[in-house]
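Per your request, structure below.
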């Protein structure tokens, strides 16, 4: 019987040359995009970034499918999952498997992107060497048994690259090659790095409200470019909470959108951790001390 995949340190794993080649090509084409600016390209790029990174990665892959912080109708869940595929961060089941393993083994050798293996490793090295984005069926059944029972999610996971190919074709027909360069290659590369900052930067730089058993931190800059995913110490302290920004100044765009869905009756069983009234956040404490 095949052993369940265990995430290991970089030096023990095989180099994923096809992933390296794919990432290099995308970065090269992203640079090319900078020489073909237009306001139309920028607008379409920002719109798709919002759909893929916020609706798809943050709200759906992370808060809904990984942690079950809320529920939506199945048709909406599948639609939002398709939005997530446009970020090209693997299919939902693979993504969820990696992230659940991260929470189960945070900052150990079984953490797929532990910052204790180095900043580069935590940021992007982990996709080049090792099995983190190449989870076998045994690993997915171990960490994501709920999704593996859903035939639609299994299908979307297997063919996660199809939606972006269709979108690229539509963009080419509408705005030509320059729009594809911007709304596919440049957008995907920037969103990759923004997401990877959650793996790297928010485990090394920022503030800590909760004394968790890891080095997770709240980082406002990362939260700004990830629609609220940068309030990472809050998240590690209360993973199921669909609300990551817990204080008034921790703006969480994904949470705001989720509350809109709830008001519309499309999101239910929304779980949000609330700070105790006695809790004094770090900035407030600093102001009180200064006074």
């Amino acid at each position: 019987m095949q052993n369940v995949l265990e995430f290991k340190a970089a030096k023990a794993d095989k180099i994923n040359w096809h992933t390296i080649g794919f990432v290099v090509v995308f970065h090269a084409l992203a640079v090319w995009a900078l020489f073909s600016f237009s306001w139309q390209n920028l607008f379409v790029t920002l719109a798709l970034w919002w759909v893929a990174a916020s609706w798809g990665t943050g709200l759906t892959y992370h808060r809904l499918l990984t942690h079950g912080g809320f529920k939506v109708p199945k048709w909406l869940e599948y639609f939002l999952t398709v939005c997530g595929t446009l970020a090209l961060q693997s299919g939902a089941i693979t993504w969820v498997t990696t992230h659940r393993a991260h929470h189960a083994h945070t900052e150990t050798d079984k953490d797929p992107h532990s910052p204790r293996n180095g900043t580069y490793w935590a940021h992007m090295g982990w996709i080049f060497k090792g099995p983190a984005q190449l989870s076998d069926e045994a690993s997915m059944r171990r960490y994501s048994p709920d999704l593996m029972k859903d035939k639609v999610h299994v299908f979307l996971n297997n063919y996660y690259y199809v939606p972006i190919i269709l979108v690229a074709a539509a963009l080419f027909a509408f705005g030509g090659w320059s729009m594809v360069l911007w709304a596919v290659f440049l957008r995907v590369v920037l969103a990759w790095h923004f997401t990877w900052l959650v793996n790297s930067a928010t485990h090394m730089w920022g503030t800590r409200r909760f004394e968790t058993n890891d080095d997770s931190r709240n980082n406002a800059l990362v939260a700004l470019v990830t629609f609220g995913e940068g309030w990472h110490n809050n998240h590690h302290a209360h993973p199921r909470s669909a609300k990551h920004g817990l204080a008034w100044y921790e703006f969480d765009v994904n949470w705001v959108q989720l509350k809109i869905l709830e008001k519309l009756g499309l999101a239910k069983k929304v779980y949000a951790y609330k700070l105790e009234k006695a809790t004094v956040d770090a900035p407030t404490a600093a102001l009180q001390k200064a006074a």
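Residues 210 and 237 are 6 Å apart (CA to CA).

Regards,
D.
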